[in-house]
Amino acid sequence: MGIFFNYANTLVNYGFAVIYVIVLTRFVPITQYGYYNAIIAFTGIISLFFPSFGVDNAIAKEAAEAHAKGGDVNPYYSAMMTLSITITMANSIALLATIPLLKVPSSLIPILYIIISSNLLNAFAGPMGFYLWLTQRTATQGKGMTVGSLVYRVSEIALIIIMRNVYAIAIASLLNVATTLSYYSNNVRIMPRIRHGLIVIRRNIKRFLNSGFQFWLATYLNGIGSSALSYLVYLYLGPQYSALFGISTVIIGAVSNFSQAVGNVFGSTAVHSRSLGGDVVRTAMEYSIAAIAVAGVLSIVAIAMLPLLPIIHIINGDYVAALPYAALLFGLSPLTALDGVYMMYYWIMGRGWSAVQRAAAGVVTSIILFIAMAGSMGLYAAVLASYVGFLATAVLYWLNNRPWSPRMWFTLTASTLLPTISALIYAMQPIYWPLPQLIIAIILVLLLLIVKPLPRSAVGQVPPILRRVITWFTH
Would you say the pTM of this structure is higher than 0.85? Predict the structure, then answer.
């Protein structure tokens, strides 16, 4: 159930986001919301000066290896907690010291204090989440995030209606972290020992930094690549297309975040398997095939339902023009699922620099292609660049992990190609919607029924009500 509950967090956020947007735009003045975003951006800039460089991930990885062999993980947990508290305290002090640099109305400055409070609570919740991950309790980890998100969205909507200002959003964020921390505390009943944590960090800092930095850099490159492409869209095409691309990336998050859920659960499983001498290569292949297939089904369903958004007034006005781009970007979901699994696989196998190289190759390829094609293709250049970037990364994964099984090739091709065709038909001939999209969705499901991309273990990753259906796709 680990993957389901990790992804449920996204479903909750997107499900309630519809109501959130409605009440936000009705009750909160746009200028005040602009100031709030400025505060969030300010805190984000300050936090860039206090990175963990992946040391926390490296500690969690070694702790998972120790747990698999029956070792004591408490010293590692103490180290993660010590590191988290230290970085958060330094970040909080820096935020307080730089308040004079924050140019917003004085009436909104207390929001910064609420954000700092949320960060301090998260300093404890974060290591607890890592502890659940390293002990293979990813379902519990996902439940905590989902419950926190549920409290966040419900309280956010209620408080906006009552307070009618951006303090409602900040307070709801605090309640989110507090709820998650409370849930985790009930499931992680271990007191960290700061002194022991400091000893672990001091003795192993070089190894932690070397291993963790590779994972951190690969993740950072993917993030900075997305941000760079978004900024280039603004520079080359202007603010209107920048807005369309921005809302498109938000929309596709409903499916693309599934890759993060899979990567998180795979990481915990793979670390334990490797420590016990298991076949991690086979595990990576099974997780990849399953993730690609599910991402393909989710994306093709999302593409078919996308035109409903303006009909039910979730997206209105000029933003409706973003739908063709969002539809095409949904087709990337199977490739992002592949990337999520294999990037984690490389790091766990001690080949983190290979993940960094592949991430860099994908980012550089997409940026160069966009710059070359923006003048002739407009915003579609960003879509094409995204596809080529992820395809380049996928080819590199294949070159270094040959041979892939026929089931892998068939699943990847069908799950990527059919949603893309569905999106192309909608982008070029929207008048024919929804018949072509429904036909293509049925074809994909039938093909997956034949190839059966899911392993038997996938049955345990979904609620009981869905298990009978899932068995039809297992081999």
Answer: no
